[in-house]
């Protein structure tokens, strides 16, 4: 069977925990430290997926959906003059932050139940997908529902009839370690997204999902949006805790417990991000196709992280899918065989990062299609290029890549520079 070149959607970088933990990736690329934050939300096709340190994520973006109307704590409990006279502005903000945490849990539980009731169960009942396929796509989503119902119940129990919540520190320090159960769910997302995209080629699946999308219950969110909600929630916990901490006085009984809770959640999220990144890296390593024995490189085999990957064009306009593993750059073209998930066929020898030279090319400096840029009236074709080169077998080899836009180009350049710096530090 002859593989057919297929346009690939780059894994949108997982809004990695970069903002929460170490920064690593940016929108256009998919970086592995950012796995969680952007997670598998594969969005722009020409943007590199940046792998960051955080549960990743990376797949195709879903349609823009409607958000629920949200109320403030003060609106919900009609906090007016009488109730607020004894509360400082800082305490009111603290109550708002605690309330936001609880409301987010309620929304999450509702969405997880909806994903099961409106998508998983009907597709199983109607035999639209097999049990094995549903297990792969939905992963351990079922087990997350009681987990968040538990936190929601604890937060509600801690709230007084007038809406005030005095202490949440003990609840969070006790509950947050439970988030480690997210490891298997987030690690499965890259495979889940690939299978879901594959199954969307099936007319029955396509029709079912389209009907759901058009139904009011979906809020114009597609199935992947719902499956990606847990990851989105996971990376938000450090931000939510930080907001509560910000408005908690140093002498408050919750202060020390909240500090401990922050350390716990950062540690848990960082560990999930690392494991998810390793899972994503392994997935793409398994999808590589070697056309020559000489293309196999132990630098690829021993890679545990994928710094970024995405679609780029060469100077002839051909689309390539480039992977930047921790120690090696791999140039491929995406191919598909029948209904199988995309594979990536190596079309050049892997380039060790330590031997790679990077050059940022000015707009208009690049030759396109073998002709001088000046021969073209459309200068767009000569924008956003950069060059990587290395010496192999006594000969200098170079590859020119064109990114989709200036931002995407800079993301690639930043990722490669970071990889080179890391390689230099490790000797």
Provide a descriptive summary of the structure in words.
- Mean pLDDT is 81; it is low at 1-28, 38-46, 52-64 and 370-377.
- This protein is 44% helix and 15% strand.
- It contains 14 helices and twelve strands.
- It has 427 residues and is α+β, with helices and mostly antiparallel strands.
- Strands 1, 2, 3, 4, 5, 6, 7, 8 and 9 form a nine-stranded mixed beta sheet that branches. The protein has a three-stranded antiparallel beta sheet with strand order 10-11-12, with helices on one face.
- The longest helix has 37 residues, at 89-125.
- The chain has helices spanning 35-38, 73-76, 81-84, 89-125, 131-138, 141-158, 169-175, 182-199, 203-214, 223-234, 237-246, 255-286, 298-301, 406-425, and strands spanning 4-5, 30-33, 49-52, 288-289, 306-313, 319-325, 328-336, 343-346, 351-352, 357-360, 385-392, 395-402.
- A hairpin with a 6-residue loop joins strand 7 (328-336) and strand 8.
- Helix 4 (89-125) packs antiparallel against helix 6, helix 8 packs across helix 12 (255-286) and helix 11 (237-246) runs antiparallel to helix 12 (255-286).
- The chain folds into two domains: 87-285, Up-down Bundle (Dbl Homology Domain, Chain A), CATH 1.20.900.10; 289-367 and 380-426, Pleckstrin-homology domain (PH domain)/Phosphotyrosine-binding domain (PTB) (PH-domain like).
- The protein is globular.
- InterPro entries: DBL_dom_sf (IPR035899), DH_dom (IPR000219), Endocytic_GEF_Adapter (IPR051480), GDS_CDC24_CS (IPR001331), PH-like_dom_sf (IPR011993), PH_domain (IPR001849), PH_RhoGEF3_XPLN (IPR044129), SOS1_NGEF_PH (IPR055251).
- It is found in: Cytoplasm.
- Residues 93-275 form the DH domain.
- Residues 43-69 are annotated as: Disordered.
- Keywords: Cytoplasm, Guanine-nucleotide releasing factor.
